[in-house]
Amino acid sequence: MSNVDWLIMCITFFVIIAYGVYKSKGQRNMDSYFLDNKSMPWYLILFSIIGTQASAVTFLSAPGQAFTDGMRFVQYYFGLPIAMIVICIAFVPLFHRLKVYTAYQFLENRFDLKTRSLTAFLFLLQRGMSTGISIYAPAIIVSSLLGWNIYWTNIFMGGFLIIYTVLGGTKAVAHTQKLQLFIIIAGMFLAGYMIVHLLPEGIGFSDALHIAGKSGKLNVITTPTNIGDKSFWDDKYNLWSGLIGGFFLALSYFGTDQSQVGRYLTARSIKESRMGLLLNGLVKVPMQFLILLIGALLFAFYQFMPAPLSFNEVQLKKVENTAYKGEIQQLQSRFDSISTLKRAATMELVNELHGENNKNDVIKTRERLSHLETQSLEIREKTKTVIKASDSSADTNDTNYIFLNFVIHFLPKGLVGLLIAIIFLAAWGSIAAALNSLASTTVIDIYKRSIMPIASEKHYLKASRWFTLFWGIFCIIIAQFANKLGSLIEAVNILGSLFYGTILGIFLVAFFFKKVKGAAVFWSALLTEGIIILVYNMEIVSFLWLNAIGCLLVILFGCLLQLILPSKPGPAVIHNE
Amino acid sequence: MEIKEQEEISNQERPPFFRRWRSWYLLVLIVLGLLILFFYLFTHNYA
Lengths: 577, 47
Description:
Chain A is built from 22 helices and no strands. Chain A has helices spanning 3-23, 30-35, 42-53, 56-69, 80-98, 105-110, 113-146, 150-197, 205-214, 230-234, 239-256, 258-264, 270-301, 313-320, 325-354, 359-390, 402-410, 415-451, 457-479, 488-512, 518-537, 545-564. In chain B, 74% of the residues lie in helices and 0% in strands.
């Protein structure tokens, strides 16, 4: 990076942090620290919800996902708008009426303490691990850029975030997320514009779309119908898994995950919460589509430009200093030859599309391109094997490096610094909200409820800050292992799917199955979680279906166990904290 | 308190632009349907 890039990056960081700290003044108790005294308008709720979900993982990994697997990942978000409607109808009025700090407080009122504690524990486990991955995502940028050790980079990155979160609180998190989102959206459009601008002369946006489309990267909608076949259930992203599995995942994430519930609980009224959530339902799918489109455009871009053998160039350079140097050079030479042929074939395809549009010619060129692409992929796979042979601990998955590689090598001075800053800001917004929610759940649902029920407001505020520190350290430890998880965005979603179905099932029983009591739902949740982990390990279905299965199993087991177990009356009064 | 009762109470807060929250919910569903249709056409146009 040039001095100009460093300067722009540092100024952006300074402005965001200073703004966040300035906005966090006047916190004296848990009400202001966790809920901002319930004073936020709908637009801040909207920015905060989007900023919490869209982390650096979204910005780094999604373009890479589209580059390698096409844009079908967007279908994963189709269930989200429907989930927003259900949450507005069933969850929001209840949470506001009970004046809760966390979603899990409601479960004690409806069931019992052990069900509340179990659900809070599942959340803490899942969110703690996911946040660890969210620390690792921006850390790979620094390690790749500066050649730093990834483990030390994680510690540096996580340590910085802990300080920011402890000082900031909920209000600072929301206000900085607002600024971060503006910068991220601007950066996203700028990156897309630059990809098209840097294409060879005569190749435009429409041509890039045709190139990506003919290579199967614009597969936004996929509708398999072979429901009796195993491949249907193994298919990770299609219209059905997106609408059904995505709906359950979004319902669980926005309705029961404290990192999101904590955002709309800060709203000044039910109306403000609902507007924030519904507008999120309107903008999330198009926003994700645009981020993925950048990946598809990048694919078209690299048909004309020389792509590296591995987008993780730091790893590749390490191999060049070993006995495997010769093998890498041979692979590079073959890869370059194929890239030259691909460039020529792509140009031919564009000319055919511009010209008389002879369908047979287009099909033939497309087949040739497809064959060359397969050869390219084979060489990339061999490269991964060589990297692994030279260093068994090496990260061979370069999906997360694709967008970053483009930013570093092709964007002009100044823009590199801005885009790197944007990735950091996206990470900070998401991680800050997560640490805040982890601390609030630990303090409200465990510490204050079961360990220290009577203490001053000052004591609880102090405890909240200490627990934020604890979770920050926990997440850093998880971050050290994140490089073993492949695509980061997928790893986060898999982790969510392992726990969200069970948590959602507990909440749906609470809302809609009034006869089911605490003991039945508690044991059904434990049983379901065991089954879900077993199903995942046996690779019976794609992870997105685990949300729906988990949720339905909790409801089913809950109803059955209620028939067997002796029925005790539920709590007579609302538990005030 | 039943879900329907909660809905009635929270509905006392009128939404912006529409008279009922139901209209907002319908709008979100219509936009989702249109987006899926657009994506379907987009996929087939460039495939």
